[in-house]
């Protein structure tokens, strides 16, 4: 219902939906039915936050309006009766007025690609509606689990800026630090310009909804195409319905059922929605505890428990505090807002965060069916009989749970790969009761999740510990009992068997120490419980400040806001899938292989074609041109014809009237296979089978034999570096529109490579490339993943559009995208290094193996770059590097930010770290000793000119207070701190670029260039370049899109060189135009721009359109002769990081990072700092968190944010400093700038080696010294296993070859 006019309200409408489809989510309804595309689809499982909206409802039992951030991708449209839904469009717009949250995130440079920005805006907006003056911890919780905001630091800082009287407060609540007195500081933005937040100006809750919400509930029924949704109005109705339909599924928040139906092929024809039944929402206080109705949300549960903890004595609320600790890390705020406590229990997940706590606490469940009530105490055993199955009778429901008060010694623990919003590896609840006045155990409950197919009680251990004194002897026996009782099959689902078993003991030891501390016996020291982050954001000193006297219209070097930032913050920025639907448009869904290596015997589409709305099935025989494709060599097929070579190999596609129908039909296609051998999945498989692509590359300089002879010591080592999923928030998307004649087709694509897309689509359709137009407005992230792999989907969609002669659209679901698109190459490195006693490296022989997958793609170039970075920043007199590219039965891996460079440098840092450990010297001393110096030569014989690593090193040591920080480290037995400094040298080279500039007679300028915008701010920088060159304000220059019909034959937007190449092309085009305008400027030297480009130029027939072109000079390298120049120049940087690890669990916390980056003379410091931050955090994911997990048959388990975790806000270092090196102009790029996109990523290795430094200290406690292997990423499992101690010895890993592992390292 339309409320009274509000200052920022774009529109507010009443929606009456009489035929609501139970299977339709709010997100689909908003985007497809209401055409509100500001809310984005990122994952469809509530794990990324891109789809966040605010749902407001009047709750009669609370007599209050409640505003909640909700995942629109999971919220069924049927669940929103009498709700007000506020989307990002509803709080502000460019045309009217932006909301203060939108303004801050835009002007404070908190938006890059912008795809996740609306979700971040709405999360903050919902928080402010409930709490206009939030503390930092409130913002932490609001953003928990939100993924891929690449400028975490700037986002958090922008949203804490008050904008009152010019004041800007730090997130710690202190005034902003202005930097030290020796450094001039240029602010990135002026907080005094921000609008203040005025809660009185927000959109009101519609009065009509208020009235309707106060009316008595009545039953609602929605009947869809194949599913029915019933919302009963009373408990009696619910019990009657459950008696009539015992198989019906109960749904409150849809956070589990929605995912089961979307991704696990589950189907429930009848849904009962009891979310608003009074008895299920009641909260009652009893003598023994608090009774919560089963529909009470986890957010409300937490709020109530918080209140009790604050007012009751601590001894009475131990269970409450344990539950609150678990809730703090439970999913994201959007999930907790709707997920019900009953749903969490009845899902019966073996890795539930809460069920072990409920079980250890002896919580009381009340079950109910028609005419019956059943009471059950969880500490007497579980109602779970097997994996995700309960012993409840089909007609029974869970009515309530009573959480008891007094449990004096009670703790809960959860260990997960990532701290916030992650599923548990092992979780537990522990409770001990002593006989009065003693430390003798009267009773003990130890409940574990993640150690069986159900939550289990350690009953045998319990019986052995009752009557024992709580002392060291009891501890040792308890660990032995737990080792025997908490066993796992070596092939157990989830893997990590030794780690999980060790955790059961380690977590009990934590509990033991906690109880000891409470008993005042041997106070607990050195056991860390990582809590909130407590960020302190240190403002970056921008040493590349513009020179005094620079014209204000000259925007080069100024922190100009990303040109699309405001539109991104308001949801008005248009991405590929936001383009309005064409008339009669169809949707495509992929059909992929389930076998890694097999012949296709037959394809049966009978069931698929029977699905309503299906138009056709597209297969290889429908391709009118060539089925061969590939970015460099044509070694792939568009659609598999006779054979599949990986799980996820695309076999065909279904075209239908809706995405839902297309996806349902795609799952119904039946493919018969004849399986083939051998199946090669891992690098080790490829080595054993000699499965390599050719050629093998080698770089060699010096004399290895001589080098090893001159060495005092020689060591050998290995390291494995895992792959990485791009996880761009916008998945691959294409819209193909046939133009009806001459085979013309227009493609709207999310791609980094318009020219390659155009060429490969033309090849498949059998038409000239000139008949295909490829357009890119912007991308929601790319990171290299849309350089080549996007062309496969675009070609399939184009073939489908050609076949049906209608527009066809496809945006991949997250699981599909992760399955088919490949990622960063996993690498395996072997090295032999010779060195002096002082740590000086004399000789290196290193071999690299990369897992390329089932096609070559760009793997040769990636391996070449790895070899060209095998030295990192270290001068090695005698060196040889060899690279093998492994052919495996995995989806083809591809370009990813760094393009092999990070893997090459990671191996280098591994051997130099081993050298330091072997010599017993500080790692920073050995690294500095081996650094290159100005004028020295690399292994590929390129001279290092304008070498700034030494300056970066000194400045980074200074701003990080490295030596003081190292001196201040206090080591405890079970928590260790580590410190590391890492340099990077990243070569920059790419081919060529073009630009086209039009000047119109009104003075406006239309600029087009060959680069694509994916959040890096390329368009913004190009406008800055054109503005300076033409000497006009940037507001007169406009970039619409990138397209093949304006700038042809473009290079992909990749290799960090797009600003260099396109900037020079734009510069050349603008210079051409200035030459043509020179006569008019000479005639009227005091005139203005509009005077010089007025109609007179038109009548004088002056061409005000010019193209520009630029190619990088003097590039070329010959691997055979080891001669030439592979790079135009190098970008340099240094980072210092400090971490703290928990030796008992393997968790770590990023405490501090300082970065000094040489970006030449920055074109735009705000964008460059954003790139440094984003690259660094993506590297943190690569080296410490993100892990792709495959079965031995090549099936990818980690196909969404549920199992694949990228860094979140909580992974930002507590203190993060970014500084740009001053006075370091680069004469080889536009306006003395440098590339910045990829080079900073490797600096995150400083976190990895800080972790390794901390592990070294932990190992020393057990008498272990010297080099040891730590593979990347440094996950909690690897950290814990490396910290060898008495607990790990109790749980040795199973012998390889004696079992079939659940997952393999590829």
UniProtKB/TrEMBL annotation:
Residue numbers binding FAD: 250-257, 330, 353, 398, 414
Tell me which residues this entry annotates as catalytic.
1238 (proton acceptor)
PROSITE patterns to which the protein is assigned, alphabetical:
2FE2S_FER_1, 2FE2S_FER_2, FAD_PCMH, MOLYBDOPTERIN_EUK
Q: Binding positions for [2Fe-2S] cluster 1?
A: 43, 48, 51, 73
Its Gene Ontology cellular component terms are: peroxisome
Enzyme Commission numbers on file: 1.17.1.4, 1.17.3.2
Q: Which GO terms describe its molecular function?
A: 2 iron, 2 sulfur cluster binding; FAD binding; iron ion binding; molybdopterin cofactor binding; xanthine dehydrogenase activity; xanthine oxidase activity
Q: What is its main location?
A: other
- Positions with a binding annotation for Mo-molybdopterin: 752, 783, 897, 1055
Q: What detail does the entry give on cofactor binding?
A: Binds 2 [2Fe-2S] clusters. Binds 1 Mo-molybdopterin (Mo-MPT) cofactor per subunit.
Q: Where does [2Fe-2S] cluster 2 bind?
A: 113, 116
User: Where is the protein localized?
Assistant: Peroxisome
Name by which UniProt lists this protein? Xanthine dehydrogenase/oxidase
Q: Which organism is it from?
A: Electrophorus electricus (Electric eel)
What gene name is listed for this protein?
XDH
